[in-house]
Amino acid sequence: MDIDNKVSFPDLLGLSETDPEFVALFKQFAFQEVPKDLPFSLDERRYYLATLAVLVGSQGLEAYKEILPVALDNGVKAMEVKELLYQAVAYLGLSRVYAFFAPTNTIFTNQGISLPLASQKNTTNQTRLEAGEEAQNAIFGDQMKGFATKGEPDVRHINKWLVDNCFGDYYTRSSLDYAERELLTFCYLYSQGGCEPQLKGHIAANLRLGNDKTLLIAVISACIPYIGYPRTLNALSCINEVVNAQ
Predict the structure, then answer these.
(1) CATH code of the domain covering residue 54
(2) Which of 82, 92, 86, 90 shows the shortest CA–CA distance to 57?
(3) Are residues 203 and 232 in the same domain?
(4) Residues 122, 131: contact at Cβ < 8 Å?
(5) 213 located within any domain
(6) By residue range, what is the domain housing residue 159?
(7) Which EC number(s) does the record attach to this protein (predicted)?
(8) What is the pLDDT of residues 57-66, one digit of tens each?
(9) Shared-domain flag, residues 200 and 237
(10) pLDDT digits over 150-194, tens only?
């Protein structure tokens, strides 16, 4: 993975003149040492998708605006970015994703990408619950069958929403497959912090879909410059716990 000199961040923030030593330190670590030392060679597309998801999860809007144009020039498609944002709403809520839409649309327009993009919807109001259950079963296993009707009566509606909204509305859409969507979900969860129970469940789902331990560690390693060490180490602990329990 060659990302050295492709990412202008943080030059466009004016830091090269005011904080040249920091810029040199950050660039050397983030764009030279990190790619060189990764235990798994991440392709550029997955690197940038993971980075964008982590920046959304950690509310790194300014860095996101720096990275997105570079991502679009290095294998990430506009449709994939929109799907990344749409799906993030299920795990972060609109309040934390809303601010990313306008800058994304501006960058798309500046690059000659016409909006709105083609529809990626594959369900209707009548089919989203059934399709969501199919997606949930494919990702987590047959033990999820009937999840929408399980649980205590006062919380059963949330289980239904997880099936028809989270999985039926988002995971069934085109452009990204289940493994790619689960990797994004892993990034949303570990980067926002405080979601370790859900993170462990989605680590298990990633492993089930072929996103192995080496890949997950490569992703959190590559994103350390943007997310820092504490949440990275929390994610690593969760990965090890899930893998060791299997």
Answers:
(1) 1.20.1290.10
(2) 92
(3) yes
(4) yes
(5) yes
(6) 122-172
(7) 4.1.1.44
(8) 999 999 999 9
(9) yes
(10) 888 899 999 999 999 999 999 999 999 999 999 999 999 999 999
In a domain, 56, yes or no: yes
Count of structural domains within the chain = 2
* H-assigned helices in the chain: 15-18, 20-28, 34-37, 44-57, 61-72, 78-92, 94-110, 128-140, 156-161, 178-192, 196-208, 213-222, 224-227, 229-245
| Cα gap 29→23, rounded to integer Å | 10
Angle between helices 196-208 and 178-192 (to 10 degrees): 160
- Choosing from 172, 203, 232, the residue where a domain stops is 172
Phi-psi region of 5 (alpha: psi -120 to 50; beta: other; left: phi over 0): left
Annotate 104-171 with DSSP letters as a single string. HHHHHHHTT--SSPPP-----TTTHHHHHHHHHHHHH-GGGTTGGG-S-TTTHHHHHHIIIIIIIIII
CA distance 239 to 231: 12
Q: Are 127 and 236 in a shared domain?
A: no
Q: Are residues 186 and 237 both part of a single domain? A: yes
Work out the average pLDDT over 64-92. Answer: 96
